[in-house]
Amino acid sequence: MTAIPLLAIRDLTVEFATRRGPVQAVRRVDVSVAKGETVGIVGESGSGKSVTSYAVMRILDRAGRIAGGEVDFSGIDLRSASERQMRDLRGREISMIFQNPRAALNPIRKVGHQIEDVLRQHAEAGSGDAKAKAIAALDQVKIARASERYHAYPFELSGGMCQRVVIALALACRPQLLIADEPTTGLDVTTQKAVMDLVTGLTRERGMASVLITHDLGLAATYCDRIVVMEQGRVVETAPASTIFRAPAHAYTRKLMQATPRPGVSLRDLLPEGAPAAPTAHAEAAGAPLLAVSGLVKEYPKAKALLSRKPAEAPFRAVDALSFTVARGESVGLVGESGCGKSTTSTMVMRLLDPTEGSIVFAGEEIGRVPAARFARHPLRPKIQMVFQDPTDSLNPRWTASRAIADPLKRFGTVRGSDAIRARCEELARLVGLPVELLDRFPHQLSGGQKARVGIARAIAPSPDLVILDEPTAALDVSVQALVLNLLADLKQALGMSYLFVSHDLQVVRMLCDRVIVMRSGRIVEEGPTEAVLGAPQAEYTRALLAAIPRPPV
Amino acid sequence: MLRTLLDRLLTTLPALAGVVVVSFLLTRVLPGDTAAYFAGPAATPQAIAQIRTELGLDRPLPEQFARYVADLARGDLGRSLTTGQPVTADLGARLPASAELTLVGLVLSLLVAIPLGVAAALKQGSLVDHACRVVATAGVSLPVFFTGLLLVYVFYFVLGWAPAPLGRLDAFASPPPTRTGFFLVDSLAAGDAETFRAALGQIALPGLTLAIFALAPIARITRAAMLAVLAADFVRTARAAGLSRRRVVVTYALRNALLPVVTTLGMVFSFLLGANVLVEKVFAWPGVGSYAVEALIASDFAPVQGFVLAMALLYTVLNLTIDLAYGLIDPRVRGAA
């Protein structure tokens, strides 16, 4: 990196005014990006990685301000630049793409017009050629039938397609620097690969520099030249991507790297050294299966206008003749991309949704015929529990942790008397590794990992036989994910439960599950023992899923 | 589009049927005897009974209702006993006055409230924001008859800027040739600047009274919606793309923020219809509100039923318009409607 950097951040400090006084979100950070270089900024939530990029663009919200340091972009001091100057730079010289692409686009404006807005703002197009240039921009991000999609609204496009539009918008004026803030979080693994390949391809082709902000060390190492690791507002390590996996210098980088699920490691390997050895023995699947699903179908009728004389369209089949079993003590992974029907399936097994056809036999009893509305009072109800995807949204914000955990106990009457319930809550808290003194806190006073533990404690409170885990770690940082996954494995061992683990993350499924079912468009594509399916996949689709996982140079 | 419209119109039919039944029953259960009222204080019981038979009030309720519905189907709303005119004629003459007043009030308050709400959201915690809060609180806390009287006192009695609060035009001016029934529109259409000015002078104070009343909800909703939208991801994208402040605020933020405002408009309009009754009393405005109140006091059923039905129809049409406008602004509901 001998060339003069395109972007140089020196000693940057960003402060946020809060009710308890100023808080430094970014402290004395140094980052430099050379022309044509791709730099990854990696860190967990609260590390200040996004705030750093907002400070560069000067789009911090009103509470935030740059408190110290300098930001230099090809000779321009961005900290003292006027708002007008900044506006000319944004979009034309420095662009940004964001997480959650659907929300990043104006929902009531045609995507073509949104691209035109940017082109016209920076005088790249006049009223005559704006449309043609916008279509060309859509073409460049490989959107098929670009002239048709020009008229589409964001809600008519898929998540991956929306991200392409956001990229087209960012690159329309051929900026020199592209900042990508978690561009693929929330996208499917194959879409992630397509989007990242597109971004790296376009930036390389145009000789642009780019900054990739992500929590995924693997993703950053795959696509970046150099990686900056941030922790709690500070840069702890800067190293070439090729060496960071092989020789992480800083303890935090090592911890982060270790916690990242990757091929060839077990759950225990994710934890820092010194964790107790794993209980290895797998519970033997014996006797009749705990859960047997056969010929499960869920159809959604297409909406029909009141006066329409057209015959109703064929209903949409979200789940199409699905059959599988889960043995006692077994954990089965249900894998697939968004829209494959995996969540619909788990919701039907949970009996929150009525199947159109098919049977669900749980513990020898047919529960598929019990209407969802009445299953809440069914004697088998305590035996099936669920852990939800978002640990924050799935807790009542006005209930303490102990109230949340006690809720199923009170509802099913498994434990009676307030002392007995409290004792059971404390026992459960110890079981899931939640400090007992935190039981009287409210969700907003707990960290993400602690909330996840409360959610798990609540699910195992009535001693269920089957726990449905719906992407339980998708919203957690990798180091917390490692702890929670290990906790789940230990609990299964100790309590002899079965898991139905719904996920799109193959690496996580590989570590936690005995058997895996790969789904696509409501059907099973492939199923079998985890090692066999992921080690030597038979179906084309499984191979594509595996190939899309980012492979850092190790 | 036409199909959606028909679909929506069909769904309003049950609501209208309900209004017919309820307005009929309500006027029947209200205390007060129409026959006794019209016979006068000195009437003999025989005279009252005779009037009752003439009006058909001695028949059983279902029969009265059947007759009412049959008349309604022919477009006959009955005859007002106080004015002696058919209710349809009375309403037809008075409805434009009320509608003109309400619309002027609504437009005035929109013109003030939306910019005020936007400014308050853009400069949160500033003087404008506090001013918005004060104006909004004052607007809802003061009863409309009080605001009306206050305005009359200041602008007519003290300053003498406004004409006497005695109806739509002063006694010596003649109304413009009727086209829409709105004096402001009709006088302009006739090219009669003098009548236009006179009508404008008369409608200014009552319009302002209603506007102050409607200001609060619209300004608050605009402010809240703008704050939510300004924090949205797509506004950040627009800023990061270097779009001008005007474009970010108007095209990106305001157009999205207008969706909840449009929804609230329907509700605000119904508040205004209620407030109208009092404002018409204060300003001697010859509208349907004061007409209905007088009829109600006189236990004169037909005008009250006619009024309730007319308001229900108006409100339904308004909601339909709002739904359709929503579809124009928001592409997401177009397919779903």
UniProtKB/TrEMBL annotation, chain B:
Family listed: Belongs to the binding-protein-dependent transport system permease family.
Name assigned to this protein: Peptide ABC transporter permease
Subcellular location: Cell membrane
UniProt GO molecular function: dipeptide transmembrane transporter activity
GO cellular component terms attached to this protein's record: plasma membrane
Topological relation to the membrane, as annotated: Multi-pass membrane protein
SUPFAM superfamilies: MetI-like (SSF161098)
All residue ranges annotated as the ABC transmembrane type-1 domain in the record: 95-326
Membrane spanning residue stretches: 12-30, 101-122, 134-159, 256-279, 307-329
A matching Pfam family: BPD_transp_1_N
InterPro entries in the record: BPD_transp_1_N, MetI-like, MetI-like_sf
Keywords of this entry: Cell membrane, Membrane, Plasmid, Transmembrane, Transmembrane helix, Transport
PANTHER family: DIPEPTIDE TRANSPORT SYSTEM PERMEASE PROTEIN DPPB-RELATED
Organism ancestry: Bacteria, Pseudomonadati, Pseudomonadota, Alphaproteobacteria, Hyphomicrobiales
Presence of keyword Mitochondrion: no
